[in-house]
Write a structure and sequence with these properties.
402 residues; alpha/beta; eight-stranded mixed beta sheet; five-stranded antiparallel beta sheet; 31% helix; binds guanosine-5'-triphosphate; binds zinc ion
Length: 402
């Protein structure tokens, strides 16, 4: 299907499908098989100048034969922000404009972004992938739940993963100098407290982290960046690049299935205990013995408490944990888990901020052959702020096992 640009003088360049006739049937064909296949959406984020656009151009120019849609979530100053969408097919890129309700994609009517993309696919046929590039100052934790759409809603898109670009040269400084103005906002929903910078949030929510601009740092500096990043987010896969040239697309940036699979290897790797290099944010792993269905219900209640209520206090203190440390409310950004059930089987747990769900491992491929979780204990991995492992473990056991 080919597209022409039809630029009339007043509005944005609209796309008109060339030779409408033969497009009609392959459009309808697209729409039919679209209902069968759901299209993965990958959120590409990263601090100002990290290399997001360089990555997008690299992906769009690679000759991979895939039909990839790119949505640039640039916040224009106009009231009704238009989303420019580049559709690339066999390297040919065309612009499409996606009218969205005004306000940024993560603040406006929650599902406007999903609806707009779905209606576009109805018109233009399904894509193989959708890449949503955020601005350098976006908090992906607000965007992810928007695209992590409940299966029941019958959405034609699903969240495949969050990829964060990191500027190897500047990230340590970025993480060490949170700019309060960035994190303080009158809208409490966005206020992430005094110590978290946007760079922290973009790293803590990532499923894949691309440490870019490796040419600008020494090997020792690169190791320091890797250590700091994996102390914040021990779950994310890390790639080191120059000019955002990742080793491959599939499995590296695309086809991550980060929200419908939980491989034991990533859980085991995260559990290796990472030095707490960052004062503000970390990864913590908790363990649970095989659970009964009743205990799984109690775990659900525990998670609602810790993820939803603002007054969760991890108590009683475990020995050696200071009162204020145990009392400061944890702020969880990403949750993953593999829980062993007493009657057999494994339940996977996925969570982003307050949205979480249990998935029967039987429903998804339990990749990661280490299998240690199947035989032994279940594991929960939290990434976030004010995570005091001993106090959290004690609260979890009191809530689920008592
Ligand atoms: N030396 C070096 N420069 C790079 C590398 N990757 C990107 N750049 C340059 O860094 C600058 C910023 O790259 P972009 O891709 O525009 O970064 P961005 O994240 O899209 O930036 P914003 O949209 O402003 O947030 C550009 O001049 C790139 O050419 C790299 O690996 N090494
Ligand atoms: Zn927002």
């Amino acid at each position: 299907m080919s597209f022409d640009m039809d630029v009339d003088d007043d509005g944005p360049p609209m796309l008109v499908a060339a030779n409408q006739a033969d497009d009609a049937e392959d459009l309808s064909a697209d729409v039919d098989d679209m209902s069968l296949t759901r299209v993965p959406i990958t959120i590409i984020t990263g601090y100002l100048g990290a290399g997001k656009t360089t990555l997008m151009n690299y992906i769009l120019n690679e000759r991979h034969g895939k039909k990839i849609a790119v949505i640039l979530n640039e916040f224009g100053d106009s009231a009704d922000i238009e989303k420019s969408l580049t559709v690339s097919q066999e390297g040919q890129q065309v612009e499409e404009w996606l009218e969205l309700a005004n306000g940024c994609l993560c603040c406006s009517v929650k599902d406007s972004g999903v609806a707009a993309i779905e209606s576009l696919m109805e018109k233009r046929g399904a894509f193989d992938y959708i890449l949503l590039e955020t601005t350098g100052l976006a908090d992906p934790g607000n965007l992810a739940p928007l695209f992590w759409v409940d299966d029941g809603l019958g959405s034609t898109i699903y969240l495949d993963g969050i990829v964060t670009l990191v500027d190897a040269k500047n990230i340590i400084r970025c993480l060490s100098e949170p700019t309060p103005s960035e994190t303080q906002s009158d809208d409490t929903e966005h206020a992430h407290g005094p110590h978290l910078s946007t760079a922290h949030l973009q790293i803590s929510h990532a499923d894949v982290i691309v440490i870019n601009k490796a040419d600008l740092v020494s090997q020792a500096e690169l190791e320091q960046v890797k250590a700091r990043i994996s102390s914040i987010n021990a779950l994310a896969k890390i790639h080191v690049t120059e000019h955002s040239k990742v080793p491959a697309l599939e499995g590296v940036l695309l086809d991550l299935h980060a929200y419908d699979q939980v491989d034991a290897d990533s859980i085991d790797f995260a559990s290796k205990g990472h030095s707490h290099l960052d004062p503000a944010i970390s990864t913590t792993t908790l363990t649970l013995p095989p659970l009964s269905p009743a205990q799984l219900d109690k775990l659900d209640t525990f998670l609602r408490n810790i993820l939803w209520t603002r007054f969760f206090i991890s108590h009683p203190q475990a020995e050696g944990v200071s009162v204020e440390a145990a009392g400061s409310r944890p702020e969880i950004h990403r949750t993953k888990g593999r829980l062993v059930m007493q009657e057999g089987g494994v339940k996977l747990l996925q969570g982003v901020r307050e949205v979480f769900e249990f998935i029967d491992a039987a429903d998804v491929s339990t990749s990661g052959a280490s299998g240690s979780t199947e035989r032994g204990n279940g594991k929960l991995v939290f990434i976030g702020r004010n995570l005091v492992p001993a106090a959290l473990q004690k609260s979890l056991e009191d809530a689920v096992l008592s």
